[in-house]
Specification:
By secondary structure, the chain is α+β, with helices and mostly antiparallel strands. The protein has 4 helices and 8 strands. It has one domain.
């Protein structure tokens, strides 16, 4: 079916907001391609549609979303927003800062955990933000469990506040990322889209976006 649709709203002469629906698919591509031989640590599930925001009433409503993220009341101020500049710089240079868990790097504020983008700069920026928010939302709801670090060596574990350094992503549509950036094929959450997103949004066919998301996993297995 069609990719999620986005809507933009001009509030005044200087600011634009937007709203996006997001679809999350489970796609264990490394296991499918058999790029790594038998390995108990590989995801071995099949392709699945894991989340459709059209079916989630919280995705449309900021007040309902407050039930899921009540701490947003602490970060709706200028000082908290200004701190996200540090997260942006860190994500662009390396990885985002987990201490600034309310920030989504250069994409803006992680809150609210829904489809409303208060500051729409561009489709690549906004869709990257929505992707990050959905990951955080699924962590908060217990639908996504963490897989990295010492706690992940023997299996998955719940992580209500996601580890932003555990994910990377790259664009598949409308223009796939086929050229490495600084020797890397993908980027961490929150990295500035200026570095890789230029020319990847265009009218009609280029207003929907698809990304491949990679999750870091630490796993301990026996010799046999």
């Amino acid at each position: 079916f069609d990719a999620p649709r986005g809507s933009r709203f001009s509030q005044d002469s200087t600011s634009t907001s937007s709203f996006y629906q997001v679809h999350w698919y489970v796609d264990p591509v490394i296991f499918w391609l058999e790029a790594i031989f038998d390995n108990a640590c590989l995801e071995q599930g099949g392709f699945d549609v894991a989340y459709l925001t059209e079916l989630d009433p919280m995705w449309h409503d900021d007040e309902l979303t407050f039930i899921l993220n009540p701490e947003v009341a602490l970060f709706g101020n200028l000082a908290a927003r200004a701190a996200c500049a540090a997260d942006c710089a860190a994500a662009t240079a390396g990885f985002p800062l987990n201490t600034l868990f309310w920030c989504a790097g250069c994409q803006g504020s992680l809150y609210p955990l829904n489809g409303n983008v208060q500051a729409h700069i561009g489709g690549v920026q906004a869709s990257s933000l929505e992707m990050t928010r959905l990951i955080a939302k699924m962590h908060r709801e217990g639908l996504m469990w963490a897989a990295s670090g010492e706690d992940g060596l023997c299996g998955y574990y719940p992580q209500p506040i996601m580890d932003k350094t555990g994910y990377k992503y790259h664009m598949l549509y409308p223009i796939p990322q086929t050229v490495q950036l600084s020797g890397k094929c993908c980027q961490p959450l929150g990295r500035s889209t200026i570095l890789w997103g230029a020319g990847r949004e265009f009218p009609f066919e280029g207003e929907d976006f698809a990304y491949m998301v990679f999750r870091k996993r630490n796993c301990c297995q026996g010799a046999f």
